[in-house]
Structures are given as structure tokens and as C-alpha cells.
Design goal:
15 helices; 0% strand; mainly alpha; globular
Length: 507
């Protein structure tokens, strides 16, 4: 209705030759225009409300990250990892406001980096509203949260602040500009210069968010080295289990809930009709995206359950939770453009990718307390490959309607151009994050700002850096001899303490 026009010159003759015909036509057109303006305003309001609600869901994932991280580390480092999660959000909010959003979506710009909207100058505008900033900020701090899991339990507090600000203010925004902005060099929205005629299809960020966070965490963990005691003197892997399966499960369910804003919310709008009758539209795509997300996660969880039972002989709830999240990380790229049955394949393979990456990590003595690099990096890469194989023609043309007859999935008859574009995305992200975050962690390590001392690591950062243990208790009514709190002791004898200098082996 907003596209229709009404003029007194056109409507007047239809009302007859009376003297009041022109006045009546002007009145009718005025009312018509008012109704059209109301419909336009309603469309903006509904779409912005939808995006705001999605932003709230994605932000709630920070609580999921916090619970997952807390449960996955030992009790003596609980307060430390919780504080880093708070700072990821706080530091990320400030730096993404000042620089990040402008570098990511500051159009018009070049294909490499945005150059407008610093400090949200000239907001709101016909392209972006404040809801767009909040939604994209929630994505940026998610990438930082992934990285914090990889370097947990042995990283200095100042290092968290520095890398979080750099990642959310520069590294991540540049990547999101490349693949999501309207003028990014490989963006599917850049119709003037589409890579291989398609651009990269990474709908909600298997590459932009998960692979970026995973590769950054990989470099941090590699440069720091394993935690003390993670590998014994012969190089065998020693499990340093997290202290609370309950927190891990709670965090997983919170992340699951938030993923319904992460993936379906990436449509940004909902009031878009795909069919003349109006019964089928973007709201249908939103529902389908939520369904594919669910199926991939559920399949990955069950596959991990039985896969780990076969390989280790145990039914391990923490492994199942990580498998579930691996399925979500993988489906994130193609959630809007694949059939529900394909999401089951995505989740199944994602589970084995995660299991395989964990096996490889143990062989090369790589220590990641939350399996973040394996989960988000490995499964994120599989998700991009999966999209290049299984994206369907109809869904691609509906979701990316700015160009007709786009290439789609190789296995669906669409050729290999989409797969090639997504493979280039994988290589580009690995190269960019390695070239930026790798040197940053290396410099921090050389300046002795990265890893804590062996004494602090053995004692636990809650006690040595944060003023006390996270879990302290006493029974009311008991005297002064009542036990208050508990003592965390390292599982090593005096004189048999491992050292980070030899990759965490005992000395």
C-alpha cells in the first residue's frame, strides 16, 4: 500500500464535474496517504521490535557462556572466568560503539573496511537503526566469549581486556564487513561485484563469528601453552575436568535458547511476503531457520552421546553438551537456505568433526579447557562447507533476493561456485585472524602480560587474584570453629610440581 500513489488530478474527474470534486479528491488522497504512512511506520516498528527481541536473545547467550565456562573450569578459577565474561560484554560494548560498528557497516565505503558511523554518528537513518547496533554488538561479544574459553585458567586479567577490545573493535568488525556489509568484497549483498556470481553465504556467522573466535582462541592457547598438569611427564593427556556438570548443562540450555535469536534473528526483518497470497513470507523463513537450528543441534547431541560411548565407554553429559553446541555452530551458516532433512546431516557430521578435532588436539598437546577452538573453529568450517553443498535454489533466491538465479549448493544441482566462495571465506578468515590476533598474543607473551605465574596457577586465580574462592559457606548457629569454605589443593606432591616451560609436563 505504501507503494501506491493518489493525486487529486487523477481522482477528481472520477468524482464528477461538481465544484466540490477537487476538494473531495484532495481529502480522499490525504486520508489515503495518511493510511499509507501508518502502514509504513508499522512495518518499521514491527521489524525493529523483532530485531530488538532477537538482540535480547543473543545477549542472553552471554549468561549461557558464563555458566558454561564456570562449569567447565576448576572451582578455584570460577570467579576469574565469570569476570572475564562480564568484561567481554562491557569492553566490547564500548569499543564496538566507538569503532566496531563503523568498521563493519559504515557504508558507503570500500570492500575492505567501513568508514562511517563512528560513535553511531548520523543514527538512526533509513538503513540502520539503534536495534541494528545492539544486535551486531551481541554478535561481536559472542566472538570474544569464544576466545576467552580457549585461554581459561592461566591468563592474566590485563590480557583479557586488551584482546577483547582489539577483537571486538577491529578484528571481528573487518571480517563482518567483508561478508555481511552491502559493499564488502565477498558479501552476498554486494550485487555490483559478487564473488563467483554468488558471494559468500554465511547467514548467521559460522565463519564470521564462530571461526573468528575459534582461530583467535587457537592462537592464544598455542602461545600460552597447556595448563600445568594437562599432560604428564610422558606426554599423555590428563583430564582436568570442570567442577560442575550442572552449570555446564544450564549454560548449554541458555545458549540453545539464545540461538533462536542468533539464527532466525539474522533475517533482521520479518514483514516480507514471498507469495501474492501473503500466507508465505519471511516469517516462514524465520520458522524454518529455527527448525533447522533445532534439528542440527539435536542430531549432533545424540551422535556425540553414542560416539563418545563407543570411543571412551562413558555416557558423558559434558561431551554431549559440547556436541550439541557444535551442531548449532555448524548450522549457523546455512540455517536459512537448507531443507530440514539436510540439517540432520549437518549435525551428524559436526559431531564427528568435533570428536576428531579433540583427538587431534590431544595428539599435538593442545589444551583448550572449553574445546572452543575445536568446537567453534572446526564445526564452523564444516558449516560453511555444508552450506556450499546443500543450499537449495528456492531458499537462496528468497533470502538473497537482490540477485536472481544465484548459484546454490553443489549437491542440490547448483554447481560449485558457492562452495568455492565459502572455501575462500575459510582461508581468508584463518589468514586475517592469524595475522592480527597471533602477533597480539605473541607480544603480550613477550611482555609477560599473557600467562600468570605457576604459583598463581596452582593456587587458583580466585584466591590469588580475586580476593577469595567463589564457593564459601558456613552453617548458621555454629561456633567459631565451623568450617568456612573449602581448600583447593593441587594434585601434586611437594617437589613434583609441573612447569609451563615444558608444556605442562611434571618436573
Amino acid at each position: 500500500m505504501a507503494n501506491l500513489t493518489c493525486s487529486a488530478d487523477f481522482l477528481g474527474p472520477l468524482l464528477g464535474a461538481s465544484a466540490n470534486a477537487t476538494t473531495a479528491a484532495e481529502f480522499i488522497c490525504g486520508r489515503f496517504q495518511n493510511a499509507a504512512d501508518q502502514f509504513t511506520a508499522t512495518t518499521y516498528a514491527v521489524n525493529n521490535t523483532y530485531l530488538l527481541f532477537s538482540a535480547y536473545l543473543v545477549f542472553s547467550m552471554q549468561l549461557g557462556f558464563a555458566m558454561l565456562c564456570a562449569g567447565s573450569v576448576r572451582a578455584k578459577n570460577t570467579m576469574n572466568i565469570m569476570l572475564t565474561n562480564v568484561l567481554d560484554a562491557a569492553a566490547g560494548g564500548l569499543f564496538y560503539y566507538l569503532f566496531g560498528f563503523a568498521f563493519a557497516f559504515g557504508s558507503p565505503s570500500n570492500g575492505f573496511i567501513g568508514k562511517h558511523f563512528f560513535g553511531l554518528k548520523a543514527f538512526p537513518n533509513p538503513t540502520y537503526d539503534y536495534s541494528n547496533f545492539l544486535y551486531q554488538w551481541a554478535f561481536a561479544i559472542a566472538a570474544a566469549g569464544i576466545t576467552s574459553g580457549s585461554i581459561a585458567e592461566r591468563t592474566q586479567f590485563v590480557a583479557y581486556l586488551i584482546y577483547s577490545a582489539f577483537l571486538t573493535g577491529f578484528v571481528y568488525p573487518v571480517v563482518s564487513h567483508w561478508f555481511w556489509a552491502s559493499d564488502g568484497w565477498a558479501s552476498a549483498s554486494n550485487t555490483s561485484n559478487l564473488l563467483f556470481g554468488t558471494g559468500v553465504i554465511d547467514f548467521a556467522g559460522s565463519g564470521v563469528v564462530h571461526l573468528v573466535g575459534g582461530v583467535a582462541g587457537l592462537w592464544g592457547a598455542l602461545i600460552e601453552g597447556p595448563r600445568i598438569g594437562r599432560f604428564d611427564h610422558s606426554g599423555r593427556s590428563v583430564a582436568l575436568r570442570g567442577h560442575s556438570a550442572s552449570l555446564v548443562v544450564l549454560g548449554t540450555f541458555l545458549l540453545w535458547f539464545g540461538w533462536y535469536g542468533f539464527n532466525p534473528g539474522s533475517f533482521n526483518t520479518i514483514l516480507v511476503s514471498y507469495s501474492p497470497g501473503g500466507f508465505y513470507g519471511q516469517w516462514s523463513g524465520v520458522g524454518r531457520t529455527a527448525l533447522t537450528t533445532t534439528l542440527a543441534g539435536c542430531t549432533a547431541a545424540l551422535t556425540t552421546l553414542f560416539g563418545k560411548r563407543l570411543t571412551s565407554g562413558h555416557w558423558n553429559v559434558m561431551d554431549v553438551c559440547n556436541g550439541l553446541l557444535g551442531g548449532f555452530a555448524a548450522i549457523t551458516a546455512g540455517c536459512s537456505v537448507v531443507e530440514p532433512w539436510a540439517a540432520i546431516i549437518c549435525g551428524f557430521v559436526a559431531s564427528w568433526v568435533l570428536i576428531g578435532c579433540n583427538k587431534l588436539a590431544a595428539i599435538v598437546k593442545y589444551d583448550d579447557p572449553l574445546e572452543a577452538a575445536q568446537l567453534h573453529g572446526g564445526c564452523g568450517m564444516w558449516g560453511l562447507i555444508f552450506t556450499g553443498l546443500f543450499a537449495t535454489k528456492n531458499y537462496v533466491n528468497e533470502v538473497y533476493s537482490n540477485k536472481a538465479n544465484r548459484p546454490y549448493g553443489l549437491f542440490m544441482g547448483g554447481g560449485g561456485r558457492l562452495l568455492a566462495a565459502n572455501l575462500i571465506q575459510i582461508l581468508t578468515i584463518i589468514g586475517w585472524v592469524s595475522a592480527t590476533m597471533g602477533p597480539l598474543f605473541f607480544i603480550l607473551n613477550k611482555l609477560r602480560l599473557l600467562r600468570i605465574s605457576p604459583e598463581d596457577e596452582l593456587e587458583g586465580m580466585d584466591k590469588t587474584r580475586h580476593g577469595g574462592l567463589a564457593y564459601a559457606w558456613h552453617d548458621e548457629g555454629e561456633g567459631g570453629d565451623s568450617k568456612k569454605g573449602f581448600m583447593m589443593t593441587p594434585p601434586f606432591k611437594v617437589g613434583d610440581r609441573p612447569s609451563p616451560a615444558n608444556n605442562g609436563n611434571q618436573v
